[in-house]
Amino acid sequence: MKYLVIDDEFLARARLRELLLRIDPAAEIFEAENGQQALDLCEQHKPDTALVDIRMPGISGIELVYHMTALEQSPAVIFTTAYSEYALEAFEANAIDYLLKPVQVDRLKRALQKADPITKVQTESLKKTTRSMHISISQKGKIKLVPIQNICYLKAENKYVLVKTAKEEYLMNDTLNNLEAELGENFLRVHRNALISTEHLEGLEKNDEGQWCVFFRGIDDKVEISRRQTPTIRSWLKNRGLE
After folding, report:
1. How far is Cα 125 from Cα 91, in angstroms, rounded to an integer?
2. What topology does CATH give the domain 147-239?
3. What is the pTM of this model?
4. How far is it, in rounded angstroms, from Cα 193 to Cα 180?
């Protein structure tokens, strides 16, 4: 069996490794200390089971497992946590197993015997207990986690959505409507084909054709605003002293 242990603390990973080897001496065990490492190892080694810490810096275990469901082969999942009050009712309601730290070998053995891959429906329910901090983008057969706080704007282009940060750009096979619902109130619809981040918004100006556009901190790009959305954007900027 192949196992993936995901925890930002070395000692926690070492304990789980030790317990797994006591249960299954022939086990192949891989370790990740963050979400991107975990996704890369899942794609490379296709583990049967992942033991995922709920609280990690950067990306929570709940959000990570949500992105894992996009993998071609998603592992069975067991959550681990040192916080007994942390969303445990949500786990129990969705029939998802979890282990309290310090993990005991008998409890781990029972969890491994009934672990199953988590479905999108289950993770959607769990996501209500935590805020998404990343979007996942499929890139050359790999899943890339892009921090939402780095995104300047998103723009529909044919069948794809262009995701633009200050340093990178990516193409997603998704719709702006789906992304608008996922990203929440920190993004504004400025056109039927564009969403912008309010965190990166600097101001607005007219282009050479007389069309109002928004511009951003840190990049030279400008995004056109539709006539319908112009009053909303101008009001938003005025309320924050940016116009």
Report:
1. 9
2. OB fold (Dihydrolipoamide Acetyltransferase, E2P) (2.40.50)
3. 0.79
4. 11
**CATH code of the domain occupying 2-127:** 3.40.50.2300
25 CB burial (10 A radius; 0-12, 13-18, 19+): exposed
Eight-class DSSP state of 74: P
Give the pLDDT of residue 241: 64
Q: At residue 179, what are phi and psi to the nearest 5 degrees? A: -70, -35
pLDDT reported for residue 150: 94
Answer yes or no: is pLDDT of 110 > 90.
yes
Three-class SS of residue 29? strand
Report the alpha-carbon distance of residue 120 to residue 166 in Å, rounded. Answer: 31
Joined together, the tokens standing for residue 132 give 């998404």
Give residue-wise pLDDT tens across range 147-165: 999 999 999 988 899 999 9
